[in-house]
Write a structure and sequence with these properties.
It is a single chain. By secondary structure, the protein is an alpha+beta fold. The chain has 2 domains: 3-87, no CATH class; 90-146 and 181-390, no CATH class. The protein has helices at 3-13, 15-18, 24-27, 30-44, 49-54, 58-71, 74-89, 125-129, 186-191, 196-218, 249-258, 273-280, 332-335, and strands spanning 131-134, 139-147, 167-174, 176-185, 233-236, 268-271, 291-292, 302-303, 306-310, 325-330, 336-349, 353-354, 357-358, 364-377, 383-387. The strands form 4 sheets. A 7-stranded mixed β-sheet has the order 5-15-10-6-9-8-7. A hairpin with a 2-residue loop joins β12 (353-354) and β13 (357-358). α4 crosses α6. The longest helix is centred in the middle third of the chain and has 23 residues, at 196-218.
């Protein structure tokens, strides 16, 4: 059998729909043709390929893989995966490597394709909408107003005056450390197209912004940030409405009414993109749609007369349940502080030890991005959170 005949049979039997890695571009690579010829030579010489594979001879192992693909032997492919995967796991540390397609190998062989196709989400609400407060130390204490002084009236001439004073509260920002740590082999660093470090930096910046937004709304998993969904005044959907898709016009009106005096100035509604479909169907008492997506003024879309913002970090339809918060109404510039102690810093290392793995002796490198920040609800009375009925 010629290589061209083998290639034709492989493409007919599998094709991109069955096994995406088996493409004509992949099979036309010189390395694949060389592997085929060397395999034929070994067979002609009477070499026991299976015995060679058991001794982990690289060429024989590759031939074993190709033969399993050609024969459609799923059992053999599963066995090869079971044997090979632990070599890349290395004491529990799953690292990026060009020898594992999913962990990075897909980046290496397709030399003519210079970018990774992806659909980036939009994040960054935390830094954009909150009141960003630079921090020079680990902790910063912020005084907040808890009450106004009381005004009294004189009922008779010469009456003794009653003392009156404002009341205050304190909020403390404490810099929390957030990081991303990526480990990869030096071979992947040298061979990947596009350059892997550039790509990791791009997606890591996006991931840090996503982490900030998640902490803003949901907290950071008990590491010090509570999240806005757990702050503020609770507005509960009535009439036993326990699902997100049962949201009503009255709920949004009640939210705007629930915040403290003047807190609604500059406020927005925040919710998941999923919720937008339910909100589009809401109408006023006159039959007009509540969601005005193209105002006469040409500004952003309005909901109940206020702007709105969608975020994938807010609860979506999959989280719909009784007694669950899913919509926020507030002006974060007034009510939420974003303490910025240290913006993103980048470090690369090739001699560290991570999960008991010495990077230097394993020809690996690590990239770490770190930032220090805190997010705190300063004025909960200016925040309204909509809950489903319990």
């Amino acid at each position: 059998m010629t290589y061209e005949e083998l290639e034709e049979k492989l493409l007919k039997k599998f094709g991109s729909d069955v096994m995406p890695g088996i493409t004509k571009e992949f099979l036309d690579r010189p390395e694949m043709k060389k592997l085929f010829e060397e395999h034929k030579t070994l067979v002609a010489q009477g070499v026991n390929i299976k015995a060679q594979a058991e001794q982990e001879v690289p060429l024989a192992q590759s031939a074993r893989f190709i033969r399993a693909i050609y024969n459609g032997d799923k059992s053999e492919l599963a066995t090869i995966k079971k044997e090979e995967y632990p070599k890349y796991q290395k004491n529990g540390l799953i690292h990026m490597s060009e020898t594992d397609l999913v962990q990075g190998g897909y980046l290496v062989p397709i030399e003519f394709f210079s970018e990774i196709q992806r659909i980036p989400c939009t994040y960054g609400i935390a830094r954009r909408d909150c009141r960003v407060i630079p921090m020079n130390r680990l902790n910063m204490t912020i005084p907040t107003s808890a009450g106004l002084p009381t005004m009294y009236w004189v009922s008779a001439e010469g009456e003794e005056k009653t003392e009156s004073k404002p009341t205050f509260g304190l909020k403390t920002l404490t810099a929390r450390v957030g990081y991303i740590l990526v480990v990869f082999t030096e071979e992947l660093l040298a061979d990947a197209t596009p350059p892997i470090v550039q790509y990791i930096l791009e997606v890591s910046k996006e991931a840090l912004s996503a982490g900030e937004d998640n902490a803003l709304f949901n907290g950071n998993g008990g590491a010090g940030i509570t999240g806005v969904l757990a702050c503020g005044t609770q507005v509960t959907m009535d009439l036993n409405r326990k699902a997100f898709n049962q949201i009503h016009t009255d709920d949004l009106i009640k939210m705007a009414d629930a915040v403290a005096c003047n807190a609604e100035m500059g406020a927005k509604y925040y919710f998941n993109k999923n919720i937008l479909a339910h909100l589009r169907m809401l109408k006023t008492t006159t039959g007009a749609y509540l969601l005005n997506e193209v105002p006469v003024t040409g500004g952003p879309g309005l909901l109940n007369g206020y702007p709105f913002e969608t975020s994938p970090m807010m609860p979506g339809n999959a989280a719909s349940a009784a007694d669950t918060p899913f919509v926020i109404f507030t002006n974060m510039k007034k009510t939420v502080a974003f303490g910025d102690r240290q913006q993103m810093t980048l470090k690369m290392a090739d001699q560290a030890t991570i999960s008991a793995i010495n990077l230097f002796t394993h020809d690996m490198q690590a990239l770490r991005l770190t930032e220090r920040l805190d997010i705190e609800c300063l004025l909960p009375t200016g925040i309204a959170v909509l809950y489903t009925a319990p």
